[in-house]
Amino acid sequence: MIKKNDTIPLLILTLAILASVVAMIKSKDRVYILNTELSLPQGFAAVKLIDSLGKVRHITVTDNDKIYARLAKPINGKGTLLLEQKNGKATLKFGFGNYGGTGVRLYRGYLYTSCNSEIFRYKLDKNGKVIDTTARETIVTGLLDNGTHETKSIMMDNKGNMYIPIGCPLNSCQQEDRKKGSMGIPDCPLLKISGGVWQFKPNVLNQTIQDGVRYATGLRNVVAVDWNTQTNQLFVMQHGRDQLDYLFPELYSTKQNAEIPAECMYALKKGDNAGWPFIYYDYLKKKKIQMPEYGGDGKKEGSSKYLDPIAAYPAHLAPNDILFYTGNQFPKRYKNGAFIAFHGSWNRRPEPQMGYFVVFQPFKNGKPYGNWEVFADGFSGSPENTASGHSERRPCGLAQGPDGSLYISDDKKGAIYKITYDENRTTQNLESSKPKTVIKDDDKILDKTNKINAAGAQIYTRNCAVCHMDDGTGVTNLNAPLKKSSNVTGEKSRLIKTLLNGLKGGKLDGEIYSNAMPSHSFLTDKEIADVLTYVRNSFGNKASAVSPEEVAAIRKIK
Predict the structure, then answer these.
(1) Nearest 5°: phi and psi at 129?
(2) Global pTM exceeds 0.70
(3) Which member of 341, 344, 410, 443 has the lowest number of beta carbons within 10 Å of its beta carbon?
(4) Spatial distance between the Cα atoms of 395 and 411, rounded to a whole number of angstroms
């Protein structure tokens, strides 16, 4: 079993041996074609059931092995997919619902789904199929969706209650989101309608947030949620805040930003307050620390009135699902422990990015016990991809099948994997090839303008790369790419206005990017001209230079 301290050297060795391999795995009288792009503990095997479905978010499996999958964006007017399995493959039977989203849950004869502002349900027949895809009932409506931290996951308890996390559409509740030095909004009033978990009734139609109960608060953004049947308690994973060093460089180094704050697991009870945005949890000090937006200095401890996490994990790994394993197929040590799907980081730069794996957290007597372990790895494609943040795949959703198999969704290329276990399993016909890092011409800075525009490169590194990455590729669904972007290579006045005025997210070249970009009007006209000229002639772009005079003209009419 891979321990967290051994992850990097063992991961490099494992991927060097197993990348791009197809192995034949025999289990009793069945032969599996194993997709060995994933590395797993001894005895486990991964089968890629299907690929290229779209951005598959959360998934759920019926008692007869049908899979319902939610897509972040509908394809051909279909945002929920039904798949059936046979001989180690899954086939798409039909899709429905012209809305994207994350949450999907089976509960008492219904399929529950969510878009980013509403919760719906559909009646199922005895075989687990939706009876009438047009007979959609609205359970909750009008939930906050400002385009950031907008996803709505769904969880039920064993007493007839439904839990919906509602993320707050701000990084740290600043008066100007993600702007250097901007302080926190007093009391963060958005906590009244977001930044927590709300409890609703799953069988009452047309509820609003006023009909729900704010079950827990102080949670910046929760995507991963599960009900622990052993303790009868709601567990969530929080996405911690970003950009400590960028927003408060006098208090935090880039290395500190890469390591804090932790991604936290909370065991919730009604009325709990986890403390965001007033505190964060320091993964290294193992303490609650007061946020700089609310008077903290990186050392001052946060109030003891806020809930302590029950477990903590490295910063910025983005936990997108948690599943307590209740099956009997896996070895006994996995029973009642938690699998966590980490989507992967973007805010650890210039330190190596991390994540893009599924980990296992052992539990004992209803509490985390011992170190977490990397369970399924290799989604990124190579250690180089992981370090640069260019993962080929990103684990997102988890589900348990009726036979105790574990299912993992990938919302980058749209695969669903099925993980099974057999203590007698052996690997045969293993071929190895060294993973290759391919550098395309358009990934290089080819234009001579950039070789002489050192000032623009420095400004980019200092102010832009934190969100748009060193190579201009941005972060999927969060920060827009600069590489061959119409906003970059198009009309100069539009680009200048973007830098001067900032953006609150939105659609670019058909994709939606949710993170806010603050105004950079604090830069001089020459600095803006330098950095925009650099960007317009980097990352495969080739466009005309921007002059300080052009910036000055736009600034006057801003």
Answers:
(1) -100, 145
(2) yes
(3) 443
(4) 7
**What is the SS3 assignment for 318?**
coil
Q: Token pair for residue 464?
A: 């832009």
In angstroms, the first-to-last Cα distance of the chain is 58
Cα–Cα distance measured from residue 294 to residue 108, given in angstroms and rounded to the nearest whole number: 44
* Backbone torsion region of residue 465, taken as left when φ is above 0, otherwise alpha when ψ lies between -120 and 50, otherwise beta: alpha
- Give 97-160 as a DSSP string: -S---S-EEEETTEEEEE-SS-EEEEEB-TTS-BS-TT--EEEE------SSS-----EE-TTS
Q: How far apart are alpha carbons 553 and 543 in whole angstroms?
A: 20
* pLDDT tens track, the chain, 558 positions: 444 444 444 443 333 333 333 333 333 333 333 555 799 999 999 999 999 999 999 999 999 999 999 999 999 999 999 999 999 999 999 999 999 999 999 999 999 999 999 999 999 999 999 999 999 999 999 999 998 999 999 999 999 999 999 999 999 999 999 999 999 999 999 999 999 999 999 999 999 999 999 999 999 999 999 999 999 999 999 999 999 999 999 999 999 999 999 999 999 999 999 999 999 999 899 999 999 999 999 999 999 999 999 999 999 999 999 999 999 999 999 999 999 999 999 899 889 999 999 999 999 999 999 999 999 999 999 999 999 999 999 999 999 999 999 999 999 999 999 999 998 876 433 333 333 333 333 333 334 444 447 887 777 776 787 778 777 877 777 778 887 777 787 787 778 777 777 777 666 666 777 777 777 877 888 877 787 888 788 878 887 888 888 878 778 885
